[in-house]
């Protein structure tokens, strides 16, 4: 049977008789008691882990330092701030003295003389509070550790999911070298492309919502024209989502400019989530309305659907993590319940607001976003996207321990006329880089032997000014991983799966090495 630990109480009083009586009362109540006759002695005992008490019965009048000052110092010290302090006094008994004790951090105050039952009841009450607070601190520590492990798990999950995603994503362009044989093959390709895009977005959203809730999202804000972004995103979602579901996506934009200071990629992510939700929770043949206005110093973006709606009980929690308007067993609407949480977090970071309204089940939902208008500075003109000219033949090295992803990237590069070598671990990757002198090296971060960071460092050091364009191609996408990649010597950090346009851009930017 486990022995119950007796609470430890430090009795501080310079009056010998009073100190003896209080100690006797506490011991008779089953408590361990240590004693001190000065303030300095009390602080030394309290700061020593071997003698640290759970509670201090502290007389206000001491020969060296007042009990008020002792209390203030103990509560200010991280080592002793959790100790409960019960002030006692036979001299300082006015209400002002009690207030001074409370302001010094005391947890209770007794005026001498007092009955044994009054002392024991006060001490036990404070000890219960001390135990409850200690339990909360312990639970909080467990929650912090669980949250850390969760973040590590999500990062590893993303890495493991992005490896097969990358192989599949790079396999599609290989299949699309030739026209489809029939309509069935074309439909199959379209389905694969849509589902891969959806899966990649789900993985990104899962990680982003974790970063948003911890305040670790970095915004890259600049003056931008919101109307152009809305029109572009709506056009993409009309083709990708609305038309396949036989829905109308109607967009109403103001005649003038709607300038905001925002991260265009993140605002696009929010609008994509809202339009996908609106379509997912609406029946075929219904309409989805998008309206953008500028008024009162704010841009207002409204997405209105005529779908299943939200009941009054669910509406206040719709932006909570993992909340969904419906939880049917068939999961016909899909999703992880994180899209609106992510949207709210991103809009909050922009200094805006997002709100949801619904008249009830079956009556549709309206999401309303407000962002501050940008009144100063000129809008950054969006660069005209031109199809880059096909780069000449390049020497490319692919270092990845995932065989399918490595071979698919190799095949994709070879189809574009490049010479490609490959390595399955970090040490072999360094040897290949030194022997082949590639123009571009795509290096995975999580490699056996030595990791991708060390590969980059060794290649940079040993090839000096003749090292290749080093690209970290990884499933790890946190700012920490990106910063580590740049510190190790990578020119760029790309999250898997790499897009074909990105691949062309990178290879085209690489300068061929002189033979």
Description:
With 515 residues, the chain is of the alpha/beta class. The chain is 45% helix and 18% strand. It has 14 helices and 17 strands. It has helices at residues 16-28, 39-47, 67-76, 95-104, 116-175, 183-213, 226-242, 264-280, 339-349, 403-415, 426-436, 452-463, 479-488, 500-509, and strands spanning 8-12, 32-36, 55-59, 84-89, 108-111, 222-225, 248-252, 259-262, 287-295, 298-305, 353-357, 366-372, 395-399, 419-423, 440-443, 469-474, 492-495. The strands form 4 sheets. The protein has a 5-stranded parallel β-sheet, with helices on both faces. Strands 7-9-10-12-11 form a 5-stranded mixed β-sheet. Helix 3 (67-76) packs parallel to helix 4, helix 5 (116-175) packs antiparallel against helix 6 (183-213) and helix 11 packs parallel to helix 12 (452-463). The longest helix is centred in the N-terminal third of the chain and has 60 residues, at 116-175. The termini are far apart. Mean pLDDT is 85; it is low at 327-332 and 381-385.
């Amino acid at each position: 049977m486990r022995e119950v630990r007796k609470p430890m109480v430090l009795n501080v009083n310079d009056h010998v008789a009073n100190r003896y009586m209080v100690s006797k009362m506490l011991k008779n109540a089953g408590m361990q008691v240590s004693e001190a006759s000065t303030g300095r002695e009390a602080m030394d005992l309290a700061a020593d882990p071997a003698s640290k008490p759970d509670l201090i019965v502290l007389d206000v009048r001491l020969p060296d330092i007042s009990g008020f000052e002792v209390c203030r110092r103990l509560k200010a010290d991280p080592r002793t701030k959790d100790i409960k302090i019960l002030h006692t006094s036979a001299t300082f008994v006015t209400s002002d003295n009690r207030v001074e004790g409370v302001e010094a951090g005391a947890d209770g105050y007794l005026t001498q003389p007092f009955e044994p039952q009054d002392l024991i009841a006060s001490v036990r009450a404070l000890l219960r509070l001390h135990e409850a607070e200690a339990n909360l601190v312990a639970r909080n520590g467990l929650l912090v550790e669980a949250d850390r492990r969760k973040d590590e798990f999500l990062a590893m999950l993303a890495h493991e999911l992005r490896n097969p995603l990358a192989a599949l994503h790079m396999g599609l362009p290989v299949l699309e070298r030739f026209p489809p044989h029939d309509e069935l093959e074309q439909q199959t390709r379209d389905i694969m492309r849509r589902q891969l895009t959806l899966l990649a977005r789900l993985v990104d959203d899962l990680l982003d919502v974790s970063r948003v809730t911890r305040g670790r999202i970095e915004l890259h804000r600049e003056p931008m024209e919101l109307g152009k972004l809305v029109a572009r995103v709506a056009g993409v979602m009309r083709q990708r989502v609305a038309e396949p579901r036989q829905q109308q996506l109607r967009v109403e934009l103001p005649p003038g400019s709607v300038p905001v200071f925002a991260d265009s990629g993140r605002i696009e992510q929010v609008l994509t989530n809202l339009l996908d939700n609106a379509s997912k929770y609406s029946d075929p043949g219904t309409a989805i309305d998008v309206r953008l206005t500028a008024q009162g110093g704010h841009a207002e973006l409204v997405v209105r659907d005529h779908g299943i709606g939200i009941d009054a009980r669910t509406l206040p929690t719709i932006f909570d993590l993992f909340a969904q308007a419906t939880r049917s067993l068939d999961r016909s609407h899909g999703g992880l319940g994180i899209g609106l949480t992510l949207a709210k977090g991103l809009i909050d970071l922009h200094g805006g607001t997002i709100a949801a309204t619904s008249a009830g089940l079956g009556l549709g939902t309206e999401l309303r976003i407000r962002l501050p208008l940008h009144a100063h500075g000129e809008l950054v003109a969006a660069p005209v996207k031109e199809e880059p000219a096909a780069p000449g033949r390049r020497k490319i090295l692919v270092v990845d321990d995932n065989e399918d992803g490595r071979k698919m990237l190799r095949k994709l590069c070879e189809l574009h006329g490049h010479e490609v070598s490959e390595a399955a671990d970090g040490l072999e990757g360094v040897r290949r880089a030194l022997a082949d002198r590639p123009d571009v090296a795509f290096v995975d971060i999580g490699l056996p032997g030595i990791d991708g960071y060390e590969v980059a460092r060794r290649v940079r050091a040993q090839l000096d000014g003749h090292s290749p364009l080093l690209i970290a191609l990884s499933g790890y996408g946190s700012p920490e991983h990106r910063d580590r990649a740049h510190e190790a010597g990578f020119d760029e950090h790309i999250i898997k799966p790499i897009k074909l346009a990105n691949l062309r851009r990178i290879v085209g930017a690489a300068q061929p090495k002189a033979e």
